[in-house]
Amino acid sequence: MAEESRLPPVVLLHGCGGSPEQTFLASGWPQAFTASGREVFAPRLPGHGHDSVSHDPVDYADLAAALLPRLPQGPVDLVGFSLGAKIALDLAVRWPARVRRMVLGGIGDNAFAPETVGETAASALEHGAGPDTPPGVRAFLATWDPALNDPLAVAAILRRPPNPLLDEAGVRAIRCPAAVVNGADDFVMTMGTRLFAALGAEPLVLPGVGHFDLPRQPQFRDAAVRFLGVTG
């Protein structure tokens, strides 16, 4: 236990429209880390939940900066899924002393682009799916739990000014070790390899796994526990 006690807290960052409960708690992520003596934090991303959330996209113009004051002091280890992975990258680029190691899931070259279906997904949250709603947005709606999030706030997040603003030079400058886990059936796996090359990380690809079911996979969780359990 003495070795594990030197390791920093683990912070679990869920995706857009998700929650700590759905993404991590239901799949045993906190227990997997606490079993090895790690302290775990699973904050809600800005605009998530129902407590005083804004419906103005401008209020989500810098998600990483808004989240930073809610992280534990000192260095942390990060696990980020989807939007949480983008924010983890932004934290590592802009505040390198705060991130020791990180594991990213559900991310690829979409890290370098704005939300490509943001308006479509925002409209679907407000008005429901229509005959032309893309399958990816329908899959997003299928994961939606209105008891956990305000749909107008999440719609505002999807319409936010583009951020994080990541580029390959910034990602190449990241100093902390990083690992990536993706599903083979996730749309991000078709977007290219620029992110992986910039990180210097070959993704672990899980066969038959899509985007929204990635956090439920024990292989993702176990790979994160192993990678973040390394000292030094």
From TrEMBL:
Protein keywords: Hydrolase
Molecular function, one GO term: hydrolase activity
Gene3D superfamilies with a match to the protein in the record: alpha/beta hydrolase (3.40.50.1820)
ATP-binding found in the keyword field: no
Domain AB hydrolase-1: 10-214
Highest taxon in the source lineage: Bacteria
Family annotation (PANTHER family): HYDROLASE ALPHA/BETA FOLD FAMILY (PTHR43194), PEROXISOMAL MEMBRANE PROTEIN LPX1 (PTHR43194:SF2)
Protein known as: Alpha/beta fold hydrolase
Source species of the chain: Alteraurantiacibacter buctensis
Lineage, opening ranks: Bacteria, Pseudomonadati, Pseudomonadota, Alphaproteobacteria, Sphingomonadales
